[in-house]
Amino acid sequence: MVKAQGFIFERIGAAAAAFTNWIMARALSRIVTHGALDVTMSNGRLLSFGDASGERVHVRFADLAAQWAFLVDADMRLGELYMDRRFLVEHGSLYDFLAMMLREAQNTGHPLVARLIDGARTRLRTFRHRNLPTRSKANVAHHYDLDGRLYELFLDTDRQYSCAYFESPDQSLDGAQLAKKRHLAAKLQIAPGNRVLDIGCGWGGLALHMAGHARGGHVLGITLSEEQHAYAMKRAAEHGESSAVEFALQDYRSLTGRFDRIVSVGMFEHVGLASYRAFFEKCAELLDDDGVIVLHTIGCSATPGFTTPWLDKYIFPGGYIPALSEIIPEIEKAGLFVTDIEVLRLHYAWTLAEWRKRFMAKWDEAAALYDERFCLMWEYYLASAEAAFRYEDLVVFQIQLTKRNDILPVTRDYIGANEKAAARRLEADLEGVVERKADHVLIG
After folding, report:
1. Comparing C-alpha atoms, which of 78, 58, 56 is closest to residue 67?
2. What is the phi/psi pair of residue 256, to 5°?
3. Which of 132, 217, 274, 315 has the fewest CB atoms within 10 Å, counting from its CB?
4. What is the pTM (predicted TM-score) of this model?
């Protein structure tokens, strides 16, 4: 009897595996038509997809349940399977697999189950992103209050944790992040004596850069991250900018006063869809009548969608990537003018590629700070984001705003002119530092 039951269960298991393999073969054959993808199923069967062009990518599922999890809800479960080592990359890299899947998925429609799940997530996006002050602080702490040594492993020396601005594809990460700060300052038209507000100031690098343009003025940077605030305060003291640059642990909604210039980089993604109007109304209240705002945010170049659930759970809780059609109406209702919109394409893919390369090179150091599962999670985050910025509809919007349409020049020539002037000033300052060091050596 026991042998008979064992035989029956074995046959049922084999039939279930065969059926799952058939579903997987149908699903992936519709998606992957170019490239070379090998998939080892949990029962050892090897499936191959594509036209055998390019570098081969080989992945493996550790168990039958992992295969079903991937088929039913890859947006949520694939990252978890990778973190738990139930989805393994045997040849190539995780990025290679994700890039192939996103690139090839452009050529086919999603299965019915996936479309139903995606539709439900899109309809619920407003309710999921009501980021009240207490929730906003908790969401920020989840990601930005991690050990600062982690970010030192892969960011540039200024700890810019947002899309860089590559003036050429081969520019260094540090050079591209400096170019980003210079580009933003050029659009803001910062003048000596200006009062500048940096909403979501991170570790303080942008605020310190802006202070160099607003000589004799004042820069206020605000953040909800205690780790970032402490680091930014330390940097201001080390740079001797404590009087010109101030950092506050504060929610933008509680701010008072007036500012000539307002900049926000990489923070709007955390505002929450339900709070867009409050954000822009607050910016309008804080902005001087002849002031300028520049908002730098990740955006979606297609119609509104939803936050990838894995990213929402593990990396950026409460985060949301808006379409332009969700941003502009709230700007208009706040009484602000849109004076310029620039769409940065591929810049974030290049930024993430550099971050991923640096992180992978420092894997052991990251594992010593946390553990292997954390490193797998972080690799999945960086690889999936890079692939999405290359092959999906993710871009970066830089939106310039004023209260009147006569505040800024009527052509965009001033942006390039301001950037060149700032580069010349930096070069002169560096030459001055070298000369002073040489004098010190000669005299001392």
Report:
1. 78
2. -130, 170
3. 132
4. 0.89
